[in-house]
Amino acid sequence: MSKMRLVYMWSLRNAAADRAGQKVAYKGGQRYMKSPLQYLAELLDATPLGERYSLEAVISDDDPDSDRDCDKLAGYGFTCGEGEHWFYPPQLTVQGRRMEGLRYAVPSSYRRLPPGDAGRVAGKRDYEQRVLEMLREVKADLVLLDGLLIILDELVRPGSPFHRRIVNIHPGITRIDSPYERRGAYATLDALHGARGERKNWQTGEVVAVPPVSMTGASFHYVDNGIDSGEVITDVLATPIDPADTILELRWNNFNNSLFPAMRRGLEILAGMDVGVTWRVEERG
User: What is the pTM of this model?
Assistant: First the structure.
């Protein structure tokens, strides 16, 4: 059986906000914040998913010529060894190859233009074309997004060669009819406010009282032109929220209780595997 050729896409600046690859303060102690990419490497090395998928490339969209991106990546840099920290152990391997050897940068440089600038549309189109060329170069079968801080357009439209071949792992339940639904970039903060009986409008700053919701989870879904609005493949609702949590404490809990299991199960479903079997992943790093 030939393996599905998998490509992983992320924004380093999102992982930096999580302090991925570092120990973070947790309830008076410290815990290691494992990145989803490191967890994926462990899945492919330690479970039968490695017999179904081959990780071919890891693409980031961060722009080294953007002052904003440079600021957000302070302490990390754009390449391993450039800063004090990195998002996973520098020696990390996956399926016998160094993770660093699989990394490619396709900067979304159109983001330097102000909103409403006529050049942003053409710049976005050019960015997606460059991504498409990279996906074709590595002969990708499936693309997994994790914390990619842009909305794809041309790549996911019906008729595109990658329509329904791009999926996303999101740290929140994305089913619109779920009482636990948390879409968008503020999903974890929305969940934390929700556990405190609040709903915050991120445009105006207004906070209103709502019935508390003390659980959150993660969804693995197809990517469409909306914000976390694609068809859900699977989700996991397994993260209790302590209203006293910090954002990083809740982030750690949700990665380990919901997001990592949803990633594993989603990949198993797409590979046609028995999702009733739970595989143990050995800790690394």
Answer: 0.94
